[in-house]
Amino acid sequence: MSIKDVKKVKQDLKKLRNKINSLNYNYYVLDTPKVSDHEYDILFKKLLAIEEIFPELVTRESPSQRVGSLPLSKFESVSHKQQMLSLNNVFHLSDLNLYMERIEKKLSVSCDEIKFSAEPKLDGLAINLLYKNGVLDLAATRGDGLTGENVTKNIKTIKSIPLKLLGSSFPESIEIRGEVFISKKGFDDINSSGSLEKFANPRNAAAGSLRQLDSKVVANRPLDAFFYAVGYCSDNLSLNYHTDLIKKLSRWGFKTCDLNQQVIGQNGCEAFYNKIYLLRDDLPYEIDGIVYKVDDLNNQNILGSISRAPRWAIAHKFPAEEKLTTIDSVRFQVGRTGVLTPVASLKPIEVGGVIVSNATLHNMDEIIKKDIHVGDTVKVRRAGDVIPEIVKVVKKDDSREKIILPRKCPECNSLVKKVKDMSFAKCTGGMICPAQKKGAILHFVSKKAMDIQGIGEKLIVRLVDEGVINNISDLYKLNKNILENFVMSTATREDSGKKYEITLGEKSIRNILKSIDDRMEVKLSSFIYSLGIGEVGEVTARILSEKYQSIKNLEKASYSDIMELKDIGPVAALNICNFFKKKSNLDIISNILKSGLLLKSTDSNISNLLNKQIYVITGKLKNISRKKLEDLIIANGGIVSNSVTKKTFSLIAGLDPGSKLDKAKKLDINIMKYEELLEILKL
User: Fold this and answer.
1) pTM of the predicted structure, to 2 decimals
2) Which of these, 221, 344, 412, 637, could form a disulfide with 433 (CB 3.0-4.6 Å)?
3) Domain residues for 377?
4) How far is 208 from 55, CA to CA, in rounded Å?
5) Does a structural domain hold residue 74?
6) Domain annotation covers residue 75
7) Does 79 map to a domain?
8) Is 121 a catalytic residue?
């Protein structure tokens, strides 16, 4: 084929792809189909036929590339170019009043004059899409706001999301933010499809669907998305209002909520809230409140952000749905630290679209305060539309039974003791208690602790129940022979009625052993955190690591020594000392270290080099991960912040630094490359 012919095919393909993309936009976004399904199918088949003949001409923005890649083994972690903020919530008008007063004070403008963009708050999964030169390059979940999971292949299966932006005027690089959701009808269709996987509510269905490792499975799920914000942008969009941004997103091919409205002042916000609240049940998708955003983008910049939430936006949540039911019984669950939590078994009732049969009673003080008894009729709600809880007793049954804290642990029969000056009681059994044992192991292997993959709750329960594992040190005794012969469960064959054993697969065994082997060298702070000491979180673990430099030094630390450390309170200090006083705990640590685990500590000679100076990192870094750079700053006595303020000592700028660079320049803050910081640290 001549060069001229190839050029002609390229032109035809471009026209055909643009035609199909335009039809997709009209069908999936505007809901106004321009051709029949048959006509569309003919065009799509023509595209596939041409691309099959000329595979070298297939492009990533082609409509044919929405599905078809091999399943992933796991999701890759990726950094957002600009942090994804979450929203603070208000539930009552009094809280909204306070929010409006803070805005007035900050802007020196009467709230009655401020324009807001009022938007329904979708109950879905936040998503961040990166487009380069108008083509979808990367899609990631929110994650912790700084990093999320790469779900690009799955996002491409959602036909309402453009693979290529419409028009020709768009930035070189831009992050588009929105919410992936499943409609109420789509949710019902999934749960009635006969699939083994059932979901509690549409949000769980959307999250579970988007996190499938096989994009072909995702393509069969009725996912949709609305878009409402921009993150990083390489160019100035020259917009004055947030509502203008929404219009621009729509022109680029994104689906936006048609209920969005510009309103004026608090009265306008409240009127919109009341209107949508009445419409809530009739909407085709789930919402759990209203988001108010200061519409003027200049005012948004003035208001800025605090921590992980913007000052210029607030979520006004709808009240949780409440229903009446009766308490059938109460059981006590034993947690990882031995705390007993009373859980009420309820007569099943639907609350907020979910069948609720259990509700937490928190502790005995709460039970006494609300005068809760078995047999009572109670009002139940899903707190934050998630966790079921009992609001109050509405009818006291004549034969009501008093709820009594058990004298002995329901798991191990050890004594239960009420903790002095606290609202909870604990099992005294420690690691002889199966519940505490299972909880400790699950915490030890968790992502923020030792990050040992492949060992989940179900497997841990079986390993402990069968006596294969008695404590966390036994994890390092696992081998191929043990796991190959380990029976997960038994089942019955449908054809013969004979029972057979279900064992771990070869791949699962290989992944478990590899993950343990890969984590034979960890930071001391991660190991301290993984031990599950009461009140010792990641920050406290890091403080202890920096101070004592080895686990042996920490074992010898006295209560008074620990209390001298900043940000460690008396309860945490006492828990640390008591933990290392127990010979059984010291034996477990000793056995783990004998297995070959290496603990990396910070270098005490340089730990104060940065002298509490505040650093902000922005942009894409080469040859070093953001997490590693943050760890280096912290290890050398510096502080990492997400926001540029007058207190910021230095901004570390990578590629495409965004608005933080502009703000640093305005505040005359020192700007450096990460290589310069490494030079200061002599690394």
Assistant:
1) 0.53
2) 412
3) 323-426
4) 33
5) no
6) no
7) no
8) yes
